[in-house]
Amino acid sequence: MSEFLQQLLNGLSLGAIYALIALGYTMVYGVLRFINFAHSDVFMVGAFIGYYLGKLVPEGTLWGGMLVLSGAMIGCALLGMFIERVVYRPLRHGPTLNVLITAIGVSLLLEYTGQIVFGAAPRTFPQIFPTANYHVGSLTISSNQLFVIGVAILLMIALQLIVFKTKIGTAMRAVSLNPKAAQLVGVNNNVVISFTFGLGSALAAAGGILYAMNYPSIDPLMGVMPGLKAFVAAILGGIGNIPGAALGGLLLGTVETFIGGSQFSTYKDAIAFAILIVILLFKPAGLLGKFTIEKV
Amino acid sequence: MLTVTDLHVSYGSISALRGISFSIPAGAIVTLIGGNGAGKTTTLRTISGLLRAKTGKVEFLGEDITALPAHQIVARGLSHVPEGRMVFSNLTVDENLSMGAYLLSDKALIAKNREYVFSVFPRMKERLKQTAGTLSGGEQQMLAIGRALMGNPKFLMLDEPSLGIAPRLISTIFEKIVEINQSHGITILLVEQNANLALEVSQQAYVLETGSIVMAGESKKLRADPQLKATYLGG
Ligand SMILES: Nc1ncnc2c1ncn2[C@@H]1O[C@H](COP(=O)(O)OP(=O)(O)O)[C@@H](O)[C@H]1O
Ligand SMILES: [Mg+2]
Predict the structure, then answer these.
(1) Which of A185, A193, A194, A293 has the most B C-beta neighbours within 10 Å, making it the best mutation to test the interface with B?
(2) Residue whose C-alpha is closest to residue A28's, from A228, A230, A193
């Protein structure tokens, strides 16, 4: 029983990180109908910003950790908006395939620039937040894990409030439903798209920091696997659907952790994709997605 | 109020508008009629900034708006209710109306506009929490017009409001269009394939055929025109 709870906790904290990354994929897909493959590398940059900022503040303090977290989120929001403005926007009215290929290009550019700037060798991520282990019965709960889940939940609630209760959030949903109609009521779609990239990238940065806190070795290719998993999570939940991305992330992280702890651990990554395929066979639009008939 | 001069628009190599000119005086209801594919929707989309003209000029209240992006054109009081309604299907009626007031920040004015929309379309008030996609065609058309009214337009362009709507509701919607024009002094450009109805409610009309204006004049006179009768008014 305690083994089960332990794994569940591990799984949820990994899943929360996938969810944070998946939200960025799904939001950008919502407004632009394309997959931003560079998103996983924004996650990596977030971890590196955290690494360098972490050297400037004393380790193991709450305020220092929060400062590092916010700094990385702001830095990545700017990076995401910059990539959209400079690379994707000029291609927006071309074929989607061109943008997709370009996104892969941006991804590789970030990874290899990362290797030049940061070096290819893994680095140990500093303990930016205070740490402690709590023992509940035979269960060991690390403060990091609680932190990951707590921060992820807070960020997802904040996102939900932004998307469903604010003017810009409503505009985001409007643009994703019908960009032309949004323009006709006065929405500047460029502003909304830029905002979406900023928001998604900030969440990826938070994901990067939380990931680095729990798996404390970072390198320029660290985004590849979590990025792929988060992408799967976004599809699993129904691409374009925000609660779907969160659900997909939590589900995938939990399943992966349980399989990792079983005799099939070698196959844990393969199983993630097998789940995707099976679910998509039965629910082609994903768990919470629905095919809407788009009227042109 | 609106002046269009020698407008040419094409989709790739296909030319859709071949130099059309017309003007619309403040306070009027003017209709643009023509068969399927004549270029009516293209005309409205070019005026509202969704499409770019190849050459030609669109002036609104004396200002050249030809090159402005759509969101800046609507900010000047020129609102376009598009063909097929284009309501935000997953948003509630309430949220759709709020989106219509996207450019307004004066809360009192927004509330006033909302009341006005409810007075014109009481049904919208009943449906407030329903998602727009679940409304009937006629209700969606009411919502699309209501959404445009939320932004305080001076000039309203309606693209085939009768399309895909139960016949019973068509006359209601046309009555409302006249009401909006008369009670609120909003100038209206009405695009229709249903020429009978459009000529009935409008003062002036233009007839579009394969991208050119082939006839223009007072709606009353056009209704009596034998040639037009034969082509557009069903004998
Ligand atoms: N997106 C498009 N791409 C290519 N051709 C188009 C497009 N939209 C309209 N057309 C063409 O332009 C012409 C005018 O179309 P449209 O303005 O929609 O006419 P109407 O609204 O009067 O039915 C038609 O010949 C139509 O086939
Ligand atoms: Mg049309």
Answers:
(1) A185
(2) A193
* Cβ contacts of A151 within 8 Å, gap of 6 or more: A69, A206, A210
pLDDT of residue B235: 53
Select the residue of B49, B84, B147 nearest A185 (Cβ to Cβ): B147
Give the tens place of pLDDT for each residue, A10-68.
999 999 999 999 999 999 999 998 999 999 999 999 999 999 999 999 999 999 999 99
- What is d(CA A27, CA A34) in angstroms, rounded to the nearest whole number? 10
CA–chain centroid gap for B73, Å, is 14
Yes or no, beta carbons of B91 and A185 under 8 Å apart = no
pTM higher than 0.90, yes or no?
Answer: yes
Cα angle: B64, vertex B66, B71; to 5 degrees: 100
Closest ligand to C-alpha of residue B40 is 1
Report d(CA A94, CA A104) in Å as an integer.
Answer: 16
Measured in degrees and rounded to the nearest 5, phi and psi for residue A228 equal -65, -45
Spatial distance between the Cα atoms of B130 and B139, rounded to a whole number of angstroms:
11
pLDDT band at A291 (very low <50, low <70, confident <90, very high): low
Query: What's the A193 CA to ligand 2 centre distance in angstroms?
Result: 29
Where residue B234 falls among pLDDT bands split at 50, 70, 90? low
Q: Which chain A residues touch B89 with a CB distance below 8 Å?
A: 177-178, 292
Residue with the two structure tokens 């709960």: A141
The stretch A118-124 carries a mean pLDDT of 94
Q: Which of B76, B71, B34 is nearest to B59 (CA)?
A: B76
Prediction ipTM score: 0.94
Angle of CA points A53, A55, A60, to nearest 5°: 95
The answer, yes or no, to whether residue B34 has pLDDT greater than 90, is yes
Question: How many CB atoms lie under 10 A from the CB of residue A37?
Answer: 21
The answer, yes or no, to whether residue B76 has pLDDT greater than 50, is yes
Element (H, E) at A212: helix A189-214
